[in-house]
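Batch job 17 of 40 flagged for manual review because the log was empty.
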Amino acid sequence: MLKKQCLKVLRAISLLAVAGIIWGGQANAAEQDVITFTTAPTQSLAQTKKIYGPLVDYLAKSTGKNIQLVAARNFLEYTSRMRKGEYDIIFDGPHFVNWRMTHIDHTPIARLPGKLVFAAIVKDGGVINNIKQLIGKKVCAVNSPNLATLMILDSFPNPVRQPVIVSARSFKDAFKCLKTGKGQAAFLPIGFWKKFKKKGKTKGLRILYTTKKKPLPTRTFSISKRIDAATRSAIQQALLNTDGQEGAQPLLKRFRRKNFVEAPSGEFKGLSRLLLSVWGFHQ
């Protein structure tokens, strides 16, 4: 039995080595002259390598720096190490970006183009006609710190007067959860609603509420100011440079964008408030 367990561990370590990804605790930029890059763990290890590996290689080649992809196993590890300032470059949502700007001296350098808008979806013919009527009602949503969930919950400032979240693994699952009657609403990005509508899957459903009056910046790259100014500038220019940006293509294809754009700091002001209900970010 012990021999089998040891073999499993060795096999897992071998797979990680082949993938070319460092787990969060294995790289320290200050000690090893490594610039660590990470992203929110919203996909598998293999997907992380496929989407972000070429971008990290491109940035390393463009800048001549030792930049390495560091994968977090889950959101607990991701947010814990983030709060300790253990990542140098991070690509994730604007609420995290603003928190890092305020607490660990990060600065945004580029982002995906466009804006994020979220919606609360309900069934036709129901009695719910106002977002406040969802207080105490079951709603289908991806657990926080998912931005769609946090942004809709921002409409309910009193923590004891909020909807009851029925946990969904993905927006597709949240949509299915609503259609099967497990919740009285679902929280989705408006882009997912449009995609479902285009496929003819929204019959019998309607939009109850959207955040279009408060659109948010899209996923963003931020970088620690412990990285010297010349290197920060070189990384930013490499991201914004549209020539020879082959390494960014898997990521851009994943988010259906053609390029990155500048990310002015003012776009993120106050967005860290969305994390106040999330463990570790309430202070």
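Reviewer: the log was empty due to a logging misconfiguration, but the result itself is present. The first strand starts at residue 22 and ends at 23. Unflagging and moving on to job 18.
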